[in-house]
Structure formats: C-alpha cells, structure tokens
Amino acid sequence: MDYLLTEQQKMIQELARKIAVEKIKPVAAEYDEKEEFPWPIVKVIAEADLFGIYIPEAYGGMGGGVMDLAIATEELSWGCGGISLAYEATGLGTFPIILYGTDEQKKKYLPQIASGKKLAAFALTEAEAGSDAGSIKTTAKKDGDYYVLNGTKQWITNAGEADIYSVVAITDKKKGARGASAFIVEKGTPGMEFSKKEKKLGIRGSATREVIFTDCKVHKDNLLAREGMGFIVAMKTFDNSRPGVAAQAVGIAQRALDEAVSYAHKRHQFGQPITSFQGIQFMLADMATEIEAARALIYSAARMIDSGAKDISKASAMCKLFASDAAMKVTVDAVQVLGGYGYMRDYPVEKLMRDAKITQIYEGTNQIQRGVIASNLIKELSKK
Ligand SMILES: Cc1cc2nc3c(=O)[nH]c(=O)nc-3n(C[C@H](O)[C@H](O)[C@H](O)COP(=O)(O)OP(=O)(O)OC[C@H]3O[C@@H](n4cnc5c(N)ncnc54)[C@H](O)[C@@H]3O)c2cc1C
C-alpha cells in the first residue's frame, strides 16, 4: 500500500525498522524473560535521533508530529512491544509539555527529551482512580512559591527510569474535575519515591512502578497551564498519545502476521504446506486486512491531529480502539496458525499475544474509548 508518506517519514520508518530488525528483535525474548529495562536499546534509539521527531524544532526536535511518532512506534513495536514502550511512554509524558508548557518550561525540558538524554512519564492513575480519573486523591497544596504533593500514583510506565514526570494532582477538592492541576516533577525531587517494579503478563521489558509523593515540594514554575486545568491537560494529552498506543498495537500485530505467514509456508501437514488449507488462508487474509484497516485509521487520525483540527478525540479514540482490538485478535490467531508450537515460548507469537493485551487497557480501556466515541457522536448531532 502507498501511505503517501513524506520523504522524512519514509526515512524515519526505515531507520526505526532497521533498529527493530537488527537491535530489538534479537534481544526481545531475553528482555521479556528477564523483565529488564532496555537501556542499551534506548541509547540506540536516542543516537538515531528518534526521540525528537515529534518535538518542535525550536526545542531541539525535528518538528514532526503525531504521524511521525506513530510511524516510528509501529516499527519499534514490531521488534518488541515492551521495549518500544520506553519510547512511546516518553511521548505520553512529553505531550503535556508540548501542548501546555510555557516557553521556559519547553526550553528547559524538551531538548533533554528530544536528545534522548532523559525519558519522560505521565502519572495520572491511582489505586482507586483508573477509568474514573476524576477520583484521584493525590493533592498539591499551595505553600508560598511551592506546591506540596502528597499521594501515590499507580502503574506508571517508565517510573523510576524516567527523569521528567507530568503529574496530575488535586489543587482544590471542592471544584471536582476543575480542581485538578498538572505539574512537571523531576526525579530526585525530595519526597518523590518509587515502588518496586510490577510483574506483568506482557510488555515485560517495560518498567511499571508506583510514584509516591510525601510532602514533595514542586516550584510553582512547574505548574502546567493554569490551576484547575489538570484534566484538560490529561485528556488533550490522550487525544495526542492514543494513536501511539494504536501504532504499538499494529506493530505487534504486523509481527504476528509476518511470523504466521512465514511459519505456515514452511509447515507441512497431510503432505502439503498448511497455507494450502482454506481455513489457514482465510485466517491470514483476515489478519492482514484488519492490520491494514487499523493502520489506515491511525494515519487518518494522526494526520488530522497534525493538521491542527480541533475535534480530534473521536478519531483518536477510534484508532486506539480498532487497532488494539485488531492486535488482540490477530495475535490470538497467529498462535492458532502455529498450533502447539505457537503456545511454546521457543516461538515468538505467545509473547506477541501477551504484549498485545495491554493496548486494550491503558490510556483508557476500550470500553472508555467506546464511551468517548459515543459521546462525540451525540455532541456532533446536537450541533447539526
Ligand atoms: C502496564 C500498565 C501501564 C500503565 N501505564 C500508565 C501510565 O504510564 N500512566 C498512568 O497514569 N496510568 C497508567 N496505567 C493505568 C491504566 O491507564 C489503567 O489501568 C486504565 O485506565 C484502567 O483503569 P483500571 O485498571 O483502574 O480499571 P478500572 O477503571 O477499574 O476498570 C475495570 C473494568 O471496568 C470497565 N469500566 C470502568 N468504567 C467503565 C465505564 N464507565 N463504562 C464501561 N466500562 C467501564 C473497564 O473498561 C475495565 O474493563 C497503566 C496500566 C497498566 C496495566
């Protein structure tokens, strides 16, 4: 398919693919097994200048957008969806600064992220506040020139490894959803700690930890946007970052298809390659078609976001929903195509199935995405 990529986007795709094939694929199973954070690969991605592709040129980036980020994320995730998450979650932690940072904040933080010297993270979720993010309890109390943060953020990707955190906390309990604010918090700030790493089903090369704030003083210069805008910052961030999760899903799914086709071509049963059976052919055809449809939806949403369009929530939710559901189905089918071998850890597809599952859960579960899509449909109707 011709995706009408620009020359720069083709270059990004080629570079990320090369890293995925040569550097990530050979070590993916090892990182999955050992559950280690992939610092050596992060360094390779940084040296290839991929961390800055969506960051404005004025702040050390290449000035691309969500489309560029999606292209790179898909390729890296083809290599390993867990390893690529260090890259993708840095995007999630960076969007609040790109979208709402002051010039000073951007000058201070974005060049370090663009160069890959520092990773970022985004901390919203708490034990009692997942889908219902409005129930967060972490507080940020104003005290002179500082805000004092108290509370615990749960399941934060890159936590402990990243240096720069976009954190949402309550500044005014009485105001409900309008009482939250977003802050940039640097690792090393006294009162900020991390729990031990979580043990997960998939994406095991990624780091997931709690971020614990105990009387953690953050200077008022690190407030993002204005007091009370925390949830707007979070929701706009998700609008920009969800195509990245979708791209992660498509990268994992594409790898599953590639593995399934290559295996099916070689595997013989009843004296013939299993690709000669229509049951297998139809499965492969459906897998390929779902992947193409998901990719088309991602590119369409990403281009819409990059064009500066205002109402992007629906398109962004749709691509995340469709691509992650497709990835789950495609990876389950890939295991089926490989039969019993697919179930064995010696073959890569069981890992792909485990890695795919998270894309239906984080940055808003797919039930929440359906809610976003439906509420936008109703909003559109009332405008007619
Ligand atoms: C590996 C991993 C990494 C993560 N990384 C981050 C991160 O970097 N930063 C961060 O802030 N968070 C992160 N999260 C948190 C993630 O975004 C949440 O887990 C997710 O939003 C769902 O919240 P929950 O797990 O509390 O599920 P719940 O909200 O408790 O949902 C449980 C079930 O109920 C359904 N449900 C809930 N509400 C509704 C509704 N209104 N309508 C229909 N169904 C509903 C859900 O879809 C789900 O099926 C991560 C989570 C994981 C597992």
How would you describe what is shown here?
The chain is an alpha+beta fold and 384 residues long. It contains twelve helices and ten strands. It has a four-stranded mixed β-sheet. It has a four-stranded antiparallel β-sheet with strand order 2-3-7-6, covered by helices on one side. A two-stranded antiparallel sheet has the order 9-10. A hairpin with a 2-residue loop joins strand 2 and strand 3 (146-157). Helix 5 (85-100) runs antiparallel to helix 6, helix 7 packs antiparallel against helix 8 and helix 7 (230-266) runs antiparallel to helix 11. It is globular. The two termini are 36 Å apart. The mean pLDDT is 97. The structure holds flavin-adenine dinucleotide. Flavin-adenine dinucleotide binds at residues 89, 121-125, 130-131, 155-157, 200, 208, 358, 361-365, 367-368, 371.
What level of helicity do the residues show?
40-55%
Q: Identify the overall geometry.
A: globular
Distance between the termini: 36 Å
Small ligands present: flavin-adenine dinucleotide
Mean pLDDT, to the nearest integer, reads 97
Low-pLDDT segments, ≥5 res: none
Backbone structural class? alpha+beta
User: Biggest sheet, open or closed, and with what strands and sense?
Assistant: 4 strands, mixed
The order of strands across the largest sheet is 1-4-5-8
Order of helices and strands: HHHHHHEEEEEEEEHEEHHHHH
By DSSP, the count of extended strands is 10
Overall radius of gyration? 21 Å
Quote the beta fraction.
Answer: 5-15%
If helices are DSSP runs of H or I spanning 4 or more residues, what is the number of helices? 12
